[in-house]
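INFO batch 0412 | record 1 of 1 | parsing
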Amino acid sequence: MSANRLLASLWLLVSAGLLVMPVLGVDPTTRLYYSNAGQVLVTLTASFYCFATMRAFPAQSPLGKVWGAIGAGLLAWAIAAGIFAAYPILNAGEDTPYPSLADPFYLLAPPLMTIGLVLFKRSAGLESPVWGKALAIAALAIFGYIAWLANAKGLSDPGLFMILVSVGYLLFDPILIAVTLLTASAFRGGDVATSWWYVVGGILLYFIANQLYTYLVGIEQYTTGSPIDAGWLLGFGLIACGAVKARKLLG
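INFO prediction complete | emitting tokens
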């Protein structure tokens, strides 16, 4: 078995663990540490694959910059996950509060991934059809509204940090989804499009997990180690798969 396939197998097993543990009655503390460790390791690995693909392109290649931007977004998310994971270790197993010092790093991920998608669309000369543009506008409106609902409590909070974090989640995630759909609508098939469908799928899972997390935190129903955490692991793993496939196209 190749190293890539081994890592893919481990990624799926780690992700599946988050779905199975609640059914098996694993205690919340174990699930918390398991989820935090999994998020850090999976995201760091995904960023490594993106940077490896970036380096596979010539130094001045715009496609190299594309994977560099996406890799930087994942690295920022991994740093945030590390900060998030450190809190319960330093505070006797208490769940990390929201917002925390991790959130500014979490908020760097969607703009950097958006930049990567925009660079890809431009460098590949992709032109989105009218229906793709309409879909992106509709997604921006629909998911913007969903994000507003998810962050409504934070937006009305008297604390400035909470408001700034909530505004970031309100704006950045819907914009990322709109740009993702706009880019995907321009795909015309072929090996390049196949590798980028993995990225699209990964971003969609990332967005869904993000919004569920924010909503559940708002109604005080979230605990780390919940099944929704698998959305982040699966999403970032798919982006890593896209990076691997893109690098293989270079020979």
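INFO post-check: The radius of gyration is 18 Å.
INFO record closed
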